[in-house]
Amino acid sequence: CGRLVFADYDQWVHVNCAFWSHEVYEDAYGTLIMCQKARFRGRTTRCSVCHLSGATLGCHGLRCQLNFHFTCAQTHVNFTLDKQTFCHQHDHWMAHIKKQQDRRRKKLDDAKAKLAATAAANIDGKLARPPNDQDGGDVEEVVRAGINDPRAIDDDNEDDEAVHLCVSELVDSICTDAIDARLEPLRFVMSDPLTDKKATKTQMTKGTCYRVGALCVQNLGTIQVGNDSFHTRSTLYPLGYRSTRLFWSATNVEQRALYECEIVNDNSHNKATTTTSRPLFKITPCDDMDNPIYGATPNDAIHQLRSRLVGLYESHRAFAGSTNPFTNRTSWYSYGLLGDHFFGLTVPVIGAALETLPYAATTALQDAQNPYPYAFCHTLPTPAMFEDAKHDLKRHRVANAHAQHSSGCARTDGFAWHKLKTKPDGVAKRRKVNVSKQASNDDTNQTKQPANGGMENLPIPMQYRDLRRRPFSERLEVRKSKIHGYGLFVKEAIAEGKMIVEYQGQAIRQKVADMREK
């Protein structure tokens, strides 16, 4: 079926299954277009051979309803150079051959008619001029030269060969211009326009699976705010990061195995001595899941994996002492697989995706608790993003400090009276001012109007009209109270003397309302 190519978020399809479908076509850049439409159609069609869904190859014969998988179609369908497929039933392939034969015969007749017209024109031109000795021949030689033109002979030979080829294909065997579909095509990408925003948003919420060679990243994890242990100057270590990689097995000689790489929280440290958590890098072989590898850094985990590989090949003596590649190399620089790269953290595509995670900009803020900030190398955050990161970092630290000094219950925490004393004894305490008086004083100080110029001194009809002029959402809001259910609250302080309108009502049934109206 060919190699797997990326189709959409967490979706991969075989290149031949997509290329030989009706909808898919190739543009000038070698990109396969309309692959999603073919994939959606394949969900509802069943193969005529195995009777399973997912058949994307259909017969191009007239009124033929047969569909096939690519693997099933290799023995039941003929593939043509013009990207058409014909089944062996209902003589569709024979009808296609006859059409090709008629098309070639028509092309041959047109070529012969054109050649005859050209020869007649040459004869008329020679007859119009009087023959002389300088021309080197008579009319008969001119006609012979026009008919025996080498280019005309080549065209006749090509047409004869085409007719002979078509006839031999029709009589001898049915293999005309059918090709080996497994050799075609060598496409590299698929690109479809994203039209359904709702479907795209749903796929984004499910998460994206990244595949780069032998590496496959299933989960990018989350950024730990305010913890410098989960990043370095060149690499981010999101908590919950998970990836898989194919590499040499540490239990079976000359075999490959799937390794699951994870970044988990290190719970081995004593929380009484350490206030911040640290990352723990875990590598789990699929063929030895009972013995996972743990390391404080990615390089520590890789060194343990390397020691297992060296021990395996030394115990089995798979190589001589001077030819063992695992013992000759003191490091894995020649493999290009350091700890961060083995996990996939420094792969350019994965690194760019990690820099777009929420709260990633907080790792680039340098302070006393983060002396070695992360240096963005793919996408630099904007100044507004850095300002938001500062607020997020401050809010997180305040919440973290409150969580460390609180038991979660007001009765068990006790009354910390000494924490309320934030100023020295010599400083006088602030007096609490009534809200209404403070609002009236603020209005007087801001407007600096005389006492007779305020709204509270205007006539009641004018105050009422001014109150009705302002929108409801600007003055009032409905929210939940701390002592009862939902209620109506003001958004601004009401000065003394200002007019307010109090609304009182009663919830009644429609029948009671009709009776009261009478």
UniProtKB/TrEMBL annotation:
It comes from Aphanomyces astaci. One of its GO terms (biological process) is chromatin organization. One of its GO terms (cellular component) is nucleus. InterPro entries: EPHD, FYrich_C, FYrich_N, SET_dom_sf, Znf_PHD, Znf_RING/FYVE/PHD. SUPFAM superfamilies: SET domain. This is PHD-type domain-containing protein. One of its GO terms (molecular function) is zinc ion binding. Residues 1-91 form the PHD-type domain. Keywords: Chromatin regulator, Metal-binding, Nucleus, Phosphoprotein, Repeat, Transcription, Transcription regulation, Zinc, Zinc-finger. Residues 427-459 are annotated as: Disordered. It comes from the Eukaryota. Transmembrane segments: none annotated. Residues 435-450 have a biased composition (Polar residues). It is found in: Nucleus.
